Protein 1
Amino acid sequence: MEPENLTRVSEFVLLGISEKPELQPLLFGLFLSMYLITVLGNLLIILAVSSDSHLHTPMYFFLSNLSFVDICFTSTTVPKMLVNIQTQSKVITYGECITQMYFFILFAELDNFLLTVMAYDRFVAICHPLHYTVIMHPQLCGLLLLLSWIMSALISLLNSLMALRLSFCADLQIPHFFCELNQMIQLACSNTFLNNMVIYFVAALVGGSSLTGILYSYSKIVSCICAMPSAQGKYKAFSTCASHLLVVSLFYLTSLGVYLSSPATHNAHSSATASVLYTVVTPMLNPFIYSLRNKDIKGALKRSFGMAV
């Protein structure tokens, strides 16, 4: 593409999930409800953990941080979408788009790292219960959290800086409800080979390492559970990691399902719809998964509010 055919970008147009006017009130009500449930549910988890000294353990420390990250993760995309629907404006400035993309990648990577750390925590708790408090001491937990933030920030910064070098033509319509990196790359008129290589390299290195760590931890956990002599012991051990395993499955299956699907099997709008699963639905379900069968969380909330939960 010749340089004179490129344009200085000032704004993009987010086409959203659907362009049908009759569906906009329904989408607004649906996403507003899911957003409020997500924020309220995760805030309750944070409140329960912070207010009850019995929950000041590594597992709940990481869970409360995961809840905070889920609130931030959803808040990077849904509020802007709601504003666009309410104002009937689909415009997002270039600066807002890059900023949204940076924080979206940041909190997505944090979700990834925290789920990996939580898998390691469950591995230590079940396979090395006598050494659990020695291994998972507060300093290590703080260090793991700090490293997760640093790694996520660096990955997000790298992808954002790579996006800044892109040049765009006249078509600035993003067929999504937020500034998704892959969609922006597809709109670019400049050479995107380096951008794609960075995405694939980071996905293979970080995503592959995290998934390998989780699978390894759970393979050891399964071996330890099978070696337990009593059925009650097996049930108790499995129940402590069942919620985390379900959340991991939801996060990875929905996100991988979107990004690994062949472009020939779905169009951009269906990809945007599928993205709702891991950007909105999964963060909304996490508090329910972790609290419905968790007596500690329900007990902490009961004590906090002075009533049955």
Note: Residues 193-227 form the longest helix (35 residues).
Protein 2
Amino acid sequence: MVQRVTYRRRLSYNTKSNRVRISKTPGANLRLLHVKKPAKGPRCGDCGSALAGIPALRPREYHRLNKSQKSISRAYGGSRCSTCVRSRIVRAFLIEEQKIVKKVIKAQAKK
């Protein structure tokens, strides 16, 4: 016969926030341990890939980290991945180059 176990908190339904696992105590009793939700971690806003260098924590636990642990020291650090930042920089550079080329062509056409 197995030992019956009950929830240790007031919520009595098997929901996502009320996950438990059975643990045996040193006194050989079975006891339910409430399991925290797994953290997904921050993701890139453009491509959706996980951001490297930032720990995957539950939202409330980020307030314990200092600023350097929550972001990366580069443009868009902690918001966009390096690949997307590189593509943004290249795109901006090419657009500026295109503007200059248009201006040169326009000047040559006037002559």
Note: The longest strand covers residues 20-24.
Protein 3
Amino acid sequence: MAEESVPAQSQADGSEHEETEAQVFEPSKEILALSQKGGLSMVLQTVVATMFAWLIVILPTVFILLFVYISWLRIPLAVYAGYCYLDPSIEDGVGRRTEWVRRLGVWKYVNAYFPVRLVVDQRLDPSLSYVFGVSPHGILCFSGQVVIGSQQSGLDESFEGITIHPIVLHHALKLPIFHEYGLALGSLSSSRESIRRCLAHGNGDSVAIVVGGAKESLHTNRGNRKLVLQNRKGFVREAIIAGAPLVPTFIFGENDIYAQLEHPLLRKVQLWLQSRMMFALPLFYGRFGIVPRRTPLTAVFGRPVAVEKNLTPSHDEINQTHARYLNEL
């Protein structure tokens, strides 16, 4: 990143200069034991992890097949699709997080395939709301599901009293059936209104925003840690408006799950499409094509960057806070 950090004083809460020993939360013994098993257990982990990787495709496809091939379901399915499109839970800043879904037994197979290690630089105050800036995006953004969505990752215990809502593209949350899954994990729409309503609650209600977005996914490859952050400042503006500290978050291993085909001509076409359609089309592959690589994930949560609440932040204030965030990241 070419942008230099701008020094600024921190408030007492979330001081960048407070020396605290990082806390490390290893995967549970059950998850570690399961991840080392072979045979049928390994096959089951692979199948479940692959299905979870492709749920955003599988679930709407199931809906379409039911609509096409079961005629008596068409009217109720059409009504249900309308409900998904109009459901206020997408935008209300609360969502519909469903704990029994987050602790389903099937998650242990996903977390055994992607064992999650958490590193927390500083414990957070559960009376505040936070904006977690998550990097990198990766291909399919596994961190939203495996680290934040599942109770098996241990994140709830690491940030006791804090509810982290993954921020998802508005239209993705309207996809039939995936709509229910996304909301059950606590997801909210990426609209400004949804984010502001959530942060206005305080009392630990927080959002996790994958800052680099679609453009960053084009840089996904094993060993590559290139991020798209220099001109991504909307999340900083929202944090200042809400007075919510920014928590730099990096998921090591996210970019190792899939590899991507790279060619100068292909990249030009991808960037052209991304600039017009607002989402990227990376050509990627894993084991046997679509199977994600078995990869441990280490989620590092940096020290929070304190901000002063300001409903009308200036460009200079946003730029200075953004520079502090980059420095901490």
Note: The chain has a mean pLDDT of 88.
Protein 4
Amino acid sequence: MDGANHSVVSEFVFLGLTSSWDIQVFLFVFVSIFYVASMMGNSLTVLTVASDPHLHSPMYFLLANLSFIDLGVSSVTSPKMIYDLFRKHKVISFRGCITQIFFIHVIGGLEMVLLIAMAFDRYVAICKPLHYLTIMSPKMCIFFLVAAWMIGLTHSVVQLAFVVNLPFCGPNVLDSFYCDLPRLIKLACTETYRLEFMVTANSGFISVGSFFILAISYVIIILTVQKRSSSGSSKALSTLSAHITVVVLFFGPLIFVYTWPFPSTHLDKFLAIFDAVVTPFLNPVIYSLRNQEMQSAMKRVCRQLVSYRKIS
């Protein structure tokens, strides 16, 4: 190759989720409800943290950024999936496919780093409470945010560097509802075994590595909490349980997809729907249900919004 893209394929065709009309109707209702609820829940979280001075702390700063990223998680694949459900010819342009892959991996890298930052925040708050405000300073919070964006962008660019110049000269059917990088590589008109391995190893290593860092962090935090028989222990464990639940929901499907030796198209589709629609909805629910301060702040914001609408 001379460095230019030799593709003659201008679009890719999705096989979608199912050909059953009843299941399509169910998925349309299910995905639409969860998508709208996810957008509203995460938007409310961002608005609440931004507008309530009581929540201007490192933990809520990171939570607001996680909710902002979850808005992207919901929007990268869900609208296209909903739009395509009842269409016979489900297509996406070559550029659209590459763009979708880019944002999927940017958001994935961002969320991993933010979850690690949130674990570090809880570690400092519980294990080094006297130094919390010194360590988790505004500069440290901005550092975590910048690092998350840099790592997310770098990870995505590295993944796309493997793919963008591949020759796509014939097959253009993807057995999926979105542009999945491993399946896209298989359509290239060249030997792709090593490339598939590199892409899978890259994402798999980052996912498993990040998960182990988080697992070790939370084990240390839990052991520290158990050693202290104070009144704040139950509150700390409640907060930790919310964080751990979100980590498991995010990394569980990822690790399964990239490390399970017996891939299944149907299972991959189910996990992809769960990741794209259910997890972004559950994150604000989990954090608000476990946090009285967040619930109170959300109620205040909702009352302000209602009174503002009445005035206008």
Note: Residues 48 and 301 are 6 Å apart (CA to CA).
